[in-house]
Amino acid sequence: QVQLVESGGGLVQAGGSLRLSCAASGRTFSSYTMGWFRQAPGNEREFIGAINWSDDNTFYVDSVKGRFAISRNNAKNTVYLQMNSLKPEDTAVYYCAAAWRYFGAGSGGYAYWGQGTQVTVSS
């Protein structure tokens, strides 16, 4: 069982930056792929990116490439989402999720989810 708690959301102006954190419980954090998703009002949950459990390889959806970066600190059981050059269309609730030995964009591959943190980007 893995419990996830996101933090770091808030209100930021367009062009600004935020860093989200996701703290995980459990002793096997390093064995999980960690993904980030977001959901804007009226929209389906959208995959943003993920970081692999084995080699810290990452991949991202095209809309955030070059602006967002995922990293992890296994000693702290924490994964981060650094968001730069934020745009109003990045406004959403952001979720982290954990997947056992799965490295993909499908939400069904992620068994554990955080409660989400709100990010609002003003124009």
Describe this structure in words.
The radius of gyration is 13 Å and the shape is globular. The protein has strands at 4-7, 10-13, 18-24, 32-39, 46-51, 58-60, 68-73, 78-83, 92-100, 112-113, 117-122. The strands form 2 sheets. Strands 2, 4, 5, 6, 9, 10 and 11 form a 7-stranded mixed β-sheet that branches. Strands 1-3-8-7 form a 4-stranded antiparallel β-sheet, with no helix packed on it. It has 123 residues and is mainly beta. 0% of the residues lie in helices and 50% in strands.
Features:
four-stranded antiparallel sheet, globular, seven-stranded mixed sheet, 123 residues
Walk me through the topology.
Blueprint: E1 4-7, E2 10-13, E3 18-24, E4 32-39, E5 46-51, E6 58-60, E7 68-73, E8 78-83, E9 92-100, E10 112-113, E11 117-122
Parallel strand pairs: 2-11
Antiparallel strand pairs: 1-3, 3-8, 4-5, 4-9, 5-6, 7-8, 9-10, 9-11
Which overall shape is indicated by the principal axes computed on the Cα atoms? globular
What's the total count of β strands?
Answer: 11
Largest sheet: 7 strands, mixed
The helical percent reads under 10%
Q: Mean pLDDT, rounded to whole units?
A: 95
Low-confidence blocks of residues: none
User: Which range does the strand content fall in?
Assistant: over 45%
Cα-atom radius of gyration: 13 Å
- The span between the termini is 40 Å
Number of separate helices: 0
Give the H and E element order. EEEEEEEEEEE
What structural category arises from helix and sheet content?
Answer: mainly beta
